[in-house]
């Protein structure tokens, strides 16, 4: 039976490279591509897929909400998040939201095939350390790493703050307004239930 994959990534090189690798290793495979989330949603409404390979940083993307939207349209489709962001910081958030696996883009070709095969055969691929995070969170009835509650942009702000960047430096590096930086800082402090930069640095160092 022909398997159908949908690769959602805004970089042509990534889509092409992944397609070539998968077609070399997996028989009877048909691959479709989407360069933004809007295009992906339209394709999901017209075509049934076995696996969606999803980059989380794409035009029209909505962080973990993308997983839910995909599953609403196709409840049985498997979703592999394929991202440049570190597994330790992002994987548990997306897996808890319904993704069947998470893989860093710097992985080897062999690992890529192993992960895809695992998801197709068993329905999931969860790295051991991420599984432990999720298990501990369930036992403690809380998220082990509070930083996973932050959005991608909020986490970027945190990293810049922790590394000594001020509001002006952050707005210049991220090309956003000074008032926007202040808004993100307020959100981060509220989510983490902290009051100052010292506490933020303590939390960041505790989980990195």
From TrEMBL:
The modification 4-aspartylphosphate is found at residue 55. Residues 143-208 form the HTH luxR-type domain. Keywords: DNA-binding, Phosphoprotein. SUPFAM superfamilies: C-terminal effector domain of the bipartite response regulators, CheY-like. SMART domains: HTH_LUXR, REC. Residues 4-120 form the Response regulatory domain. Pfam families: GerE, Response_reg. GO terms for molecular function: DNA binding. GO terms for biological process: phosphorelay signal transduction system; regulation of DNA-templated transcription. InterPro entries: CheY-like_superfamily, EvgA-like, NreC/VraR/RcsB-like_REC, Sig_transdc_resp-reg_C-effctor, Sig_transdc_resp-reg_receiver, Tscrpt_reg_LuxR_C. This is DNA-binding response regulator, NarL/FixJ family, contains REC and HTH domains. It comes from Flavobacterium terrigena. The lineage of its organism: Bacteria, Pseudomonadati, Bacteroidota, Flavobacteriia, Flavobacteriales.
């Amino acid at each position: 039976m022909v398997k159908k994959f949908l690769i959602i990534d805004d970089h042509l090189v990534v889509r092409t490279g992944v397609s070539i690798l998968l077609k070399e290793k997996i028989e009877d495979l048909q691959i479709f591509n989407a360069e933004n989330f809007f295009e992906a949603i339209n394709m999901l409404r017209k075509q049934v897929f076995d696996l969606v390979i999803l980059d989380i940083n794409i035009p029209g993307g909505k962080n973990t909400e993308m997983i839910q939207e995909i599953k609403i349209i196709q409840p049985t489709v498997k979703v592999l998040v394929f991202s440049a962001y570190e597994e330790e910081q992002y994987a548990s958030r997306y897996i808890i939201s319904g993704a069947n696996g998470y893989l860093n883009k710097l992985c080897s070709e062999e690992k890529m095939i192993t992960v895809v095969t695992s998801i197709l055969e068993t329905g999931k691929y969860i790295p051991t350390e991420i599984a432990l995070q999720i298990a501990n969170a369930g036992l403690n009835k809380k998220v082990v790493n509070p930083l996973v509650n932050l959005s991608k942009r909020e986490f970027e702000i945190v990293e810049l703050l922790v590394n000594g960047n001020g509001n002006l430096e952050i707005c210049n590096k991220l090309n956003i307004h000074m008032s926007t930086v202040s808004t993100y800082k307020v959100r981060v402090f509220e989510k983490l239930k902290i009051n100052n930069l010292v506490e933020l640095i303590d939390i960041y160092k505790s989980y990195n």
